[in-house]
# Entry
Amino acid sequence: MKHITIAIETEFIPAMNLLKLAGAAATGGEAGNLILDRRVRLDGTVLSEKRKKVRPGQVLSVDGLWDIVVTPASRQQP
# Structure
């Protein structure tokens, strides 16, 4: 299984964007198809919304082969 950690600076990232950013999908269409084919889980629950908001602390899994963990980006003070 491939474990990937993605740090985001925003409050959330749409599931399709996260799949592309992590490399689990090459295009938005491919990401959407993974979700529509019920191959993606968010915290263990099958995901059905392509634009579902994924927040830091949540885990997106694809086919049991990928675990994508979302974390908040660390912000350094100047």
